[in-house]
From TrEMBL:
PROSITE patterns: ZF_C2HC_LYAR. It is found in: Nucleus. One of its GO terms (cellular component) is nucleolus. This is Zinc finger C2H2 LYAR-type domain-containing protein.
């Protein structure tokens, strides 16, 4: 399950709740795993699966430990 960070209130929101939450906060979201920014429902709807575990691992090696 992909989780997102609300730009407005900072809440962590799961994919199925994004539309509902976006309607309330009127803001965009960042994907927690890949740090991509999504500013509209059309954008986050396309993000049904995130980077693979391997990519995440390489990214962690490259950039150092991520702050969660
Ligand atoms: Zn919010
Ligand atoms: Zn992602």
């Amino acid at each position: 399950m992909v989780s997102f960070n609300c730009h407005v209130c900072g809440d962590v929101v799961k994919k199925p709740k994004l539309d509902q939450h976006g309607a309330r906060c009127h803001g965009g979201f960042d994907c927690i795993d890949c740090s991509k920014t999504f500013n509209s429902p059309a954008e986050w709807k396309g993000h049904t699966s995130c980077i693979s575990e391997a990519e995440k691992y390489q990214k962690t090696l490259y950039k150092g430990p991520q702050v969660r």
